[in-house]
Amino acid sequence: MQVLVADDEITSRVMVETMLREKGHTVRNCDDGFDVAKILSATPHPRIAVISNALSRLRGLDVSRFLCATGKKSGVYILLVSDVLDMELVELCSRAGVDDIIARPFSAASFMSRLEAAERAVELEDELARVQGILHGLAAFESPVDKKARALRESNATLLGIGGKKTDADDDAHKKAAAAPATAPDTLRRHPPAVPTADKRERVFRGVQIFPDKETDAGQAAAQAHVPEGAHSFMGAGAPPAQAAKVAYADTGSTSSGESPRPPAPAPPPPREDVRQDALVNAQIVQDEELADDEIIHPFEFDEIILNVFSGMGVTLKSEIPPKPLPEGPLYASWVGIAIPTQAIWMDVMLVAGEQAGKIVTKELLGQSKVTDSDVCEMFAELQNMVQGSLRRYLEENGHKPVLQLTIPRASRMEEALELPLETALVESGFSINGEPLMAVLFEHREFYICDNVTDMKCYDFVCEPVVKEGIPGELLVMGSLVRTKEMGIIEGYAGKVLPFKAMHASPLAKAIGPGRLLEVPGTAECCDKVKA
Description:
By secondary structure, this protein is of the alpha+beta class. It contains 16 helices and 17 strands. Strands 6, 7, 8, 9, 10, 11 and 12 form a seven-stranded antiparallel sheet that branches. A five-stranded parallel sheet has the order 2-1-3-4-5, with helices on both faces. A three-stranded antiparallel sheet has the order 13-17-14, with no helix packed on it. α1 links the parallel β1 and β2. It is globular and about 85 Å long.
């Protein structure tokens, strides 16, 4: 079995490596916490890790937190080596996912007993995985009787005209049905928009969307009304009875004298309800894929960014689905704005925590038992800065370039609840620490306007395209400019014309918090008094 030994003390590391090799284990060693995290996150990785809690850059405790936060702790048994062993450390290790602790200095017998316990735990985990694989295989096994029953069901479906092969006439009928104008109501929408606008963006909560099981009666009747005569419809019954009788009569044909006419061909049975439901499900899947292509980030990917940032700082959060409600009383909030000018997208990231959650996070970050409000705000602003940096890297790696930071992160203590524009929330992620709730909300703003007169712009507007002077070479404002005091002075001092360009007003979140409070550079004069009505 491969074992990783990470210790900053050479004497202790050599002793442990010697005992492991004598037992026949393969040993890897390192003395840096970041290297340990990379080795244990890779595949394959050592099954047992003996890690010192005094490693450089990342402690052994923080390595375990990181693995738990990223979902890669499974399959790794962590034995933490610490110079100090007290109840506080035991509690921290329990929350961080450490499997066992041993105090230094330790004897060979003590270490070997801990190692044997680790080996038994790994062997039991492997045995559990093997049994689960057998159970999954048995669940997927199809006996000869089941195979025969399935063949009979398929044969019966073919005879009933449900599962048979398509004919050219069926294909032509379906093509005509697809070409018919679609006046049926949209029964496969994610959510009915509160305001019927073309640019309305819908909220995504963990990517879970609810669709109606069946169409409304009006929608079903409208869908049937556009099915060509004689064509098969998956959205309702087949051809109308009168048309079916007409087709059956035509099939009898003319007969010679003395011969009785052929009996009319029976009308095909209407499609079964399960076939209709399958068609609806397939349509929902197709629409889901089309809508997912327009999502700039998946909710679980945003969750992973938040978890990685906090775990990298030594704080372990627990995901809460659905999010826990925030407590009554004062709240700590931090926010930052980023934008993608080429796509006219303005995004605001907000971290909100109750008083207890904010102080618990700050205490773990600073390693202190008492913290002040200014300490909490400073730490939340730093966490927000790391979140926006990770989010910008994610967006740029996925083809959204350039991603600009609109201002530095801010944080403050709010005594009263703030009314947030949740209708523009793209992702709402819930977490907890020691049972206390914390939320991360990603807001998205996509409403832009076309401007051909710079004097119409307002303070804190965002320029999505370069503002080019008409007839004069040069740009008045570059792409990605946020109109503050300096830009407002340039605009007011220019009397010429410009070519039409795309711009955005301040986001709803910025308006709710206060544009100057969110977007102004600290230490500079605000230009909110220059906003035009």
